[in-house]
């Protein structure tokens, strides 16, 4: 009784302290609030039981209604449990920031709770589209026409066999497929479409008229009309009807549709059967490899090892319910029968327009059979999709994402030209420098100096007598065989010409004299690129350096000595301090001076080295041992006196590095790990490699973007009547070919825009995103969802632990942690492991995606190649113990009885709940029943003791459930990963699915909410794109602040929906609103980024005349809009 009273007193005291603290902090945090009169008292912000600031009373009541009554004793116990947990992780009592309360009236919700609200607005948005889809899927397609009409434009074939020329298909629901003559460009060549009562065919005038007129700029005349007559920019009745177009990878077909490029958005939406399949039955990358290996009976070692680790159901079970994503495989999976014949596709890929004309009838039939197959897939997969994704928000979100839109102008062409020019200039510089280095290397033939070169000694230095040009700078008969192979060979005794060298060639690292931490790089045919260190480094360092014969064979003495010199140079300060005050200091200074100038004559350096260190004492007298860092065991190669270490590969030590100048090693160049010892020109090549890496990898994708340039009448009056409009300028659009559910987590996939990086000052072409520019009269309005997936995972943990926000260490750090105090989640991990915060961020995301200790160990070695395998394993183990925790076990009834008996017999037990580690269970059994074992008293394992234990317990509980579903919208995992067919296999992918698929729920909720608010209040806005955690809308300029407020309300309702569905009927203030809404004329990460790059050296302001945008927090937006979405109440302050 006394103890319970003490606990109650302690609980009440804690709550009172939080309340008093909140009042004090509220009084001190008035900087962001408007000034109040002296007589007006500032109300204390709402705080929950662990000091997390919650929504204002005003917003809380509008969203969640009246507070729900709960058992005070149970609540008190949960609060005490949370406080103990936070104390354990040294977070309780840490200072936090308080925000000013946000108070304004939000639009009235449609339902008794948020789930009903979102169901109502999503059903309203999709109702007509669902009816059209149902009508299309419920009916058979008409019979194919016996003959296709070879006429430009659209032809309709009725079910009675009648043929009719039409402007565009009249039906509101179509299955659609487009074919392109690839050798002639990206424009459509022919297309077929079908509804429940008619077939349609379309032919390009370029096909039928036999005239290949090439225009520099693509216009809407080159595309397929689906809603308007030729030459018209609006539908016949002036209203855009709601239409649905179905296709397999339909974003490819959408990019060929005329009306989709108009600035004014139509009401046509696109449904992708490939996305439906991926969501229902998609595979992970690993499963795809396993399936391919099973089909080909592959004996690959890594595949066989992976298969041997699988347990539970036979692999064949999940193989039968999944397939690849192509139409052939998907149709075979759902419809069976004979596999589709796609041989005719080769004519479109490799053939000419004449080939297509000559085979018009069979090719049109081939195209129509794709339509039939797509329709069959739709009928089979649609019921499965509705069953597994029952919430209307899912379909609504996918339909909204199907109409992504990126406006561009004449600056796009300027960007392409500047980027390519910059790239070409830098590549010429690289080739010229490598040619000079090759010419210089040829001089080593004299007196066989190459034998003492640590990089070039193993090349083929065989010299043949040649006929030499008179004015050649290279002496006759000195061209080695390796040099000859670099030159174009015209005849047997060819005269020497300019070598053709690039950084892709194996000789390039040798000519650059690349070193890894000071050690020379070496290529081995078996192990790929690595680096060499002295084989007897330990013996050498423990002997007196003055003994000439201690370090290997006499023949390799100078060669090995160079390695030691390079190593000393790398650790310059350490060794110099050790020997600086020796009697032979003069010789030491000469040695350092020579080393700083660069590697000179090996014999001279050897003498300098021996004179400098002859009197250095033995190793045991030194304070620190001389160590050669390595990340893996030595590999024996055929080099006397040397050890070979493979360069670290991003995919693990079993993989070999093919090119140390590839993009995966750019960070090693930046931090000085990878250096060039061939002088300033060689270092310049390394810098150029970094500068050109982005454009080199993305150039083909960027330049192949289909840009359609709009005529003046295809723009809106808002643009053409704007003061910034210039008729001499060009305005157009790009349609990102988004696969709306491109992975089985339902993340969208697109190869260019969804992987676009931000602008970097040393990356050619990296200003790509900023070349998407709003036309006059419009602005981009968007935001970056702050720590979206970290918050989702932490919130799952909070709901599982004590049921309120911030009750776990991970939840508290996400909500209240401060970078300045090191209490945010990334800073805490960085401190625990001893890595940078940026690296900790990568580790944290990898962990919540389900990656285990092996992945963490691999990442740590990538971050710091000097870490040994044991050191990396130790750091990874330490991090997982601090975050994920240790394995614990939930007790069954027998275990609970023994636990109570044990607790009663121990007065000072530290265990407060029946979730014990294996050691604690053994201790309990020794005291209570020695005949029982762990399996007799435990139900299942859980994670305990870590900051994220509750989070992972919840993630794993969902992943292990019979039908894993996202906790918010109830979306079900792909059939190929369900426990019934895979058992306990693929757990990393399943945990990853819980987090990332929930993040897709988040995006879909946002898209639906924004569509509702824009429609309700007449805000002229259309979805532009979502990149990573960013979402962007193209908005009428005068609506930009109302759209900003709508986006803030959207985030508020989306986060509240998550909280409500997880049983927490409240929301922290810190995550309720975006930290900033960006209002800008271009796409960029920050509104003040000038996006200076080597291809845009003047930046956006000077180079393109583009000013900075606005970044507005919720308080500034409320000030500009008066907290009201109505247009008449919006101040629109500039």
Automatic annotation (TrEMBL):
Reply yes or no: does the keyword Transferase apply: yes
Subcellular location field:
Mitochondrion matrix, Mitochondrion nucleoid
Question: Is Cytoplasm a UniProt keyword of this protein?
Answer: no
Q: Where is the FHA domain?
A: 814-842
One GO term of the biological process aspect:
mitochondrial DNA replication
EC number(s) given by UniProt: 2.7.7.7
Q: Report the domain of life of the source organism.
A: Eukaryota
Report the SUPFAM superfamilies cross-referenced here.
DNA/RNA polymerases, Ribonuclease H-like
> Which UniProt keywords are present, listed alphabetically?
DNA replication, DNA-binding, DNA-directed DNA polymerase, Magnesium, Mitochondrion, Mitochondrion nucleoid, Nucleotidyltransferase, Transferase
Query: What PANTHER family is this protein classified in?
Result: DNA POLYMERASE SUBUNIT GAMMA-1
What does the similarity note say? Belongs to the DNA polymerase type-A family.
What is the name of the protein in this document?
A: DNA polymerase subunit gamma-1
Species? Strigamia maritima (European centipede)
């Amino acid at each position: 009784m006394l103890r319970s009273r003490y606990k109650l007193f302690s609980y009440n005291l804690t709550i009172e302290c939080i309340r008093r603290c909140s009042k004090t902090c509220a009084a001190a945090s008035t900087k962001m609030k408007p000034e109040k009169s002296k007589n007006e008292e500032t109300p204390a912000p709402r705080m929950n039981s662990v000091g997390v600031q919650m929504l204002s009373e005003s917003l809380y009541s509008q969203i969640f209604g009246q507070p729900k009554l709960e058992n005070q004793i149970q609540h008190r116990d949960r609060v005490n449990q949370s406080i103990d947990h936070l104390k354990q992780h040294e977070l309780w009592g840490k200072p936090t920031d308080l925000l000013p309360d946000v108070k304004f009236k939000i639009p009235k919700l449609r339902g008794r709770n948020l789930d009903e609200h979102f169901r109502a607005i999503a059903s309203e948005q999709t109702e007509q589209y669902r009816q059209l889809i149902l009508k299309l899927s419920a009916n058979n397609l008409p019979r194919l026409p016996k003959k296709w009409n070879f006429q430009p434009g659209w032809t309709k074939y009725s079910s009675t066999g009648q043929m009719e020329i039409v402007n565009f298909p009249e039906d509101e629901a179509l299955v659609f497929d487009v074919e392109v003559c690839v050798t002639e460009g990206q424009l459509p060549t022919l297309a077929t479409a079908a509804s429940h009562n008619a077939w349609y065919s379309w032919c390009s005038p370029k096909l039928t008229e036999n005239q290949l007129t090439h225009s520099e700029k693509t216009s809407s005349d080159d595309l397929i009309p689906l809603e308007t007559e030729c030459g018209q920019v609006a539908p016949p009745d002036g209203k855009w009807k709601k239409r649905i177009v179905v296709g397999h990878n339909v974003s490819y077909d959408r990019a060929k549709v005329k009306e989709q490029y108009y600035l004014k958005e139509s009401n046509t939406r696109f449904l992708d059967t490939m996305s439906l399949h991926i969501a229902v039955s998609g595979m992970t990358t690993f499963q795809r490899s396993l399936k391919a290996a099973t089909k080909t009976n592959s004996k690959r070692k890594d595949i066989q090892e992976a298969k041997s680790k699988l347990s539970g159901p036979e692999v064949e079970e999940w193989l039968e319910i999944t397939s690849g994503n192509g139409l052939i495989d998907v149709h075979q999976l759902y419809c069976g029968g004979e596999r589709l014949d796609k041989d005719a596709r080769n004519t479109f890929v490799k053939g000419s327009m004449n080939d297509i004309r000559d085979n018009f009838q069979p090719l049109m039939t081939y195209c129509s059979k794709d339509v039939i197959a797509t329709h069959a897939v739709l009928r089979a997969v649609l019921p499965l999709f509705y069953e597994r994704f029952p919430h209307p928000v899912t379909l609504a979100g996918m339909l909204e994402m199907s109409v992504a839109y990126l406006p561009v102008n004449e600056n796009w062409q300027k960007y392409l030209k500047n980027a390519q020019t910059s790239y070409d200039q830098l590549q010429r510089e690289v080739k010229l420098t490598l040619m000079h280095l090759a010419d210089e290397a040829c001089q080593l033939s004299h007196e066989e100096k190459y034998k003492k070169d640590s990089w070039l000694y193993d090349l083929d230095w065989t010299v043949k007598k040649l006929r030499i040009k008179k004015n050649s700078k290279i002496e006759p008969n000195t061209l080695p065989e390796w040099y000859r192979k670099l030159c174009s060979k015209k005849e047997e005794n060819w005269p020497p010409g300019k070598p053709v060298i690039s950084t892709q060639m194996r000789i390039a690292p040798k000519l650059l004299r690349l070193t890894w931490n000071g050690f020379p790089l070496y290529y081995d045919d078996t192990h790929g690129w690595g680096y060499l260190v002295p084989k007897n480094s330990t013996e050498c360092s423990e002997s007196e350096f003055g003994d000439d014969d201690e370090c290997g064979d006499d023949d390799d003495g100078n060669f090995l000595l160079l390695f030691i010199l390079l190593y000393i140079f790398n650790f310059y300060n350490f060794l110099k301090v050790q020997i600086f005050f020796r009697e032979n200091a003069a010789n030491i200074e000469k040695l350092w001076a020579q080393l700083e100038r660069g590697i000179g004559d090996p014999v001279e350096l050897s003498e300098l080295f021996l004179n400098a260190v002859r009197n250095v004492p033995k190793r045991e007298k030194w304070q620190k041992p001389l160590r050669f860092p390595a990340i893996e065991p030595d590999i024996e190669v055929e080099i006397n006196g040397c050890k070979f270490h493979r360069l670290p590969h991003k995919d693990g030590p079993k993989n070999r590095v093919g090119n140390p100048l590839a993009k995966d090693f750019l960070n090693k160049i930046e931090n000085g790990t990878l250096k060039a010892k061939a002088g300033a020109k060689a270092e310049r090549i390394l810098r150029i490699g970094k500068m050109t890496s982005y454009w080199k990898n993305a150039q083909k994708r960027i330049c192949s973007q289909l840009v359609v340039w709009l005529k003046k009448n295809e723009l809106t009056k808002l643009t053409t009547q704007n003061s910034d409009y210039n008729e001499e300028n060009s305005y157009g659009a790009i349609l990102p070919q988004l696969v709306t559910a491109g992975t089985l987590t339902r993340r969208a996939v697109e190869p260019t825009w969804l992987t676009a990086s931000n602008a970097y000052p040393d990356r050619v072409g990296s200003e790509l995103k900023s070349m998407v520019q709003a036309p006059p009269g419009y602005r981009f309005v968007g935001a970056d969802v702050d720590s979206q997936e970290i918050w989702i995972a932490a919130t799952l943990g909070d709901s599982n632990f004590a049921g309120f926000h911030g009750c776990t260490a991970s939840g508290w750090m996400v909500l209240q942690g401060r970078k300045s105090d090191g209490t945010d989640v990334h800073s805490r991990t960085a401190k625990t492991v001893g890595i940078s915060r940026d690296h900790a961020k990568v580790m944290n995301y990898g962990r919540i995606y389900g990656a285990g200790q092996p992945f963490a160990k691999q990442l740590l070695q990538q971050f710091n190649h000097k870490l040994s395998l044991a050191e990396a394993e130790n750091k990874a183990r330490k991090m997982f113990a601090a975050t994920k925790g240790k394995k614990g076990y939930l007790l069954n009834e027998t275990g609970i009885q023994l636990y109570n008996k044990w607790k009663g017999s121990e007065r000072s037990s530290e265990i407060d709940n029946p979730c014990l580690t294996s050691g604690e269970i053994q201790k309990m059994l020794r005291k209570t029943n020695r005949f029982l074992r762990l399996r007799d008293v435990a139900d299942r394992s859980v994670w305990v003791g870590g900051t994220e234990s509750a989070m992972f317990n919840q993630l794993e509980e969902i992943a292990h459930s019979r039908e894993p579903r996202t906790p918010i919208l109830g979306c079900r995992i792909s059939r190929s990963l369900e426990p019934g067919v895979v058992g306990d296999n693929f757990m990393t992918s399943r945990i990853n699915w819980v987090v990332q698929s929930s993040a897709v729920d988040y995006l879909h909720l946002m898209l639906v909410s924004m569509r509702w608010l824009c429609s309700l209040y007449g805000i002229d806005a259309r979805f532009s794109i979502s990149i990573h955690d960013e979402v962007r809308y193209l908005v009428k300029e005068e609506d930009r602040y109302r759209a900003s407020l709508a986006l803030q309300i959207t985030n508020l309702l989306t986060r509240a929906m998550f909280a409500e569905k997880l049983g927490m009927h409240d929301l922290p203030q810190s995550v309720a609103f975006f930290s900033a809404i960006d209002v800008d004329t271009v796409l960029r990460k920050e509104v003040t980024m000038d996006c200076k790059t080597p291809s845009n050296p003047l930046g956006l302001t000077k180079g393109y005349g583009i000013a900075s945008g606005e970044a507005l927090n919720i308080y500034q937006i409320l000030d500009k809009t008066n907290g009201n979405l109505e247009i008449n109440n919006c101040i629109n302050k500039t």
